[in-house]
Design goal:
Length: 588
């Protein structure tokens, strides 16, 4: 198992660098100064030795009659050096430090380099350990006038000892300086790396998302400049992030507020984001992130659209059907993969188109019927030989169909004015019973002929409402007309007023009849324009098919609602709500 290499921190590397530099400096100074001092002292000693050797040769030549050994001893004592006299054959004949009786014991010096150089007419010089005294010596040899070699030597041990003492002193001072330098380098490395450590901590915190951290360096050096640059970068990043977050929030709010559904897909087709409109359209629960495309819709057209746009092909507006929704879909691929799909729910538009188509067809049919009758009977009336009784009958038929046509046109105009906003309710306190009886007066003669009873049950505090009098009159008139048309002889029509359940401050008004009733399958549609439960009977009795549609619009214009309840053979109840008059509902 191999171990990973040890990595030193910047402070440790800086400290070790200073320490190694100090050690190298001390060692270099110690040995360098020692070597330089040795070379310098040796040269000085050699120069002095050369001068002394010349003096010794001169003295030796001046005492030509003296014994060589005696002269060597005298000169050696005077100079404080070892003086040796050597014949040309290498025999030592005098030495200031060897007893005369021992000269014969000395080996032949003819092979010594300094002796050979002197015999050659030069000044001989050599440094070596003396075999006789056992320590390093500096030798200088010169040829005398007698033809012999005079050699002067000096021991170098004292010089080397002095140099060693100087080196030891330098080493001691160097060690002290090394300790001081180590402490100084440790403090300096800490002072240099401490702001770097702080910069590193702040940078790591920023990388983790905490852009509130700052270095706040005080120095004006390069590290301070780096810290200031990092603080400036953090300020700018924080400003940009706040700006981007604001723009992102605005974009998200805009997308969430869109009526169009927006689906953002990843490159694999899963949902990345869906706005509330899209979730409502496709019945997605929760955030819907990560939902697979087939889980959104299994319609082949939708899956084909997704597959095409994920291949990088933009798609123009295409209509899809998802459940009860008609969707106009457009799709755009994204540069980094994935796609954005936008869906516009055109179901209301399609329903309006269907309603308009039905309205045109129904209105054309309703208008065509009386017009056909008017045209046919009027052509017959042009016959001059038509009997008077038939002429009278046909004329009455033409008149009746013209009135029916007038009623249809009037109801269409009223309905158009209400739906377009050309008419607005102007509520005021009205008494329900008064308006209902005024509307019933137009049907009282027909009711007496059919023996249909009429009564009102609107006692306080539900006898007054806030409503537009003319609108309420028309509501009652249309309801009475329908009720009287389908109520058999001996039946009854009743108006009731009571507090609206679960709606304080509202009055519920009901118009009940004991007529033939309406099948349950027709109840949801009886408030549509031109919708008839029994078309043949309605047309025969002069109905326009617009009365209940007008009732619904007038009630809704007051903020109320209308509904129907019926059973075959037991009659029908039309129930609507209107705001109560405040005086009839005091605050408790």
């Amino acid at each position: 198992m191999s171990s990973s290499p040890v990595r030193l921190r910047a402070g440790q590397r800086l400290f070790l660098s200073y320490l190694v530099l100090s050690v190298v400096t001390v060692v270099a100074l110690t040995f360098g100064i020692g070597a330089s001092l040795r070379r310098h002292l040796t040269e000085q000693t050699r120069d002095a030795l050369w001068r002394e050797a010349r003096l010794a040769v001169a003295f030796y030549d001046a005492h030509a009659g003296s014994e060589p050994d005696a002269v060597a001893r005298h000169v050696g004592k005077a100079l404080g050096r070892r003086v040796t006299v050597i014949r040309r054959d290498g025999t030592v004949i005098g030495d200031s430090e060897v007893a005369p009786g021992r000269l014969t014991l000395l080996e032949n010096h003819g092979t010594r380099p300094e002796v050979r150089a002197a015999l050659g007419g030069r000044v001989g010089e050599a440094v070596r350990v003396s075999r006789s005294v056992g320590e390093p010596q500096l030798y200088v040899a010169m040829l005398t006038g007698r033809g012999e070699v005079l050699r002067v030597a000096v021991a170098l041990g004292a010089i080397y000892a002095a140099i060693g003492q100087v080196q030891r002193g330098l080493l001691g001072v160097g060690l002290a300086a090394l300790v001081f330098g180590a402490a100084l380098s440790l403090g300096l490395s800490y002072a240099v790396t401490r702001p770097l450590h702080k910069v590193g901590r702040v940078a790591r915190a920023m990388a983790a998302g905490d852009l509130s951290r700052r270095v706040h360096a005080r120095g004006g050096d390069e590290i301070g400049e780096v810290a200031d640059a990092l603080d400036t970068l953090a300020d700018e990043l924080q400003r940009r992030l706040v700006q981007l977050e604001g723009e992102r929030g605005e974009m998200q709010a805009l997308i969430d507020a869109m009526a169009e559904g927006v689906l953002a897909l990843d490159r694999d087709g899963t949902v990345r984001r869906a706005n509330p409109a899209a979730r409502r359209m496709f019945g997605l629960v929760g955030e819907a992130r990560g939902t697979a495309t087939p889980a959104v819709s299994r319609q082949p057209a939708f899956l084909e659209l997704v597959g095409t746009v994920l291949k990088g092909t933009p798609l123009p507006a295409t209509e899809l059907v998802h459940g009860q929704h008609h969707l106009l879909a457009s799709a755009q691929p994204l540069a980094d993969g994935g796609a954005v799909l936008v869906f516009l729910d055109v179901s209301p538009l399609r329903r309006l188109q269907d309603v308009r188509r039905d309205f045109v067809a129904n209105a054309s049919h309703e208008l065509k019927t009386p017009l056909t009758a008017i045209r046919g009977y009027s052509e017959t009336l042009l016959d001059p030989e038509l009997p008077p009784d038939l002429r009278q009958q046909f004329t009455e038929t033409v008149h009746a169909n013209a009135e029916r046509l007038q009623h249809i046109v009037d109801d269409l105009l009223d309905l158009s004015r209400i739906e377009s906003g050309g008419w607005r309710a102007e509520p005021e306190p009205v008494v329900i019973e008064q308006v209902a009886r005024a509307a019933w007066n137009g049907f009282s003669a027909a009711a007496e002929e059919q023996r249909v009873r009429f009564e009102i049950q609107a006692d306080a505090p539900c006898d007054q409402v806030l409503a537009d009098p003319s609108a309420l009159h028309q509501i009652f008139a249309n309801l009475f007309s329908n009720a009287l048309r389908f109520t058999p002889s001996g039946g009854s029509i009743t108006v009731l007023a009571s507090p609206a359940p679960k709606h304080p401050g509202w009055t519920r008004v009901e118009v009940r009849d004991t007529g033939t009733g309406i099948p349950a399958v027709h109840l949801p549609r009886i408030f549509e324009r031109f919708y008839r439960v029994d078309p043949a009977r309605s047309r025969a009795e002069g109905g326009t098919g617009l009365g209940l549609a007008i009732v619904r619009h007038l009630v809704e214009a007051h903020g109320g609602s209308v509904e129907a309840e019926s059973s075959l053979g037991q009659g029908t109840t039309i129930r609507f709500t209107l705001p109560s008059h405040p005086a009839t509902h005091p605050v408790t």
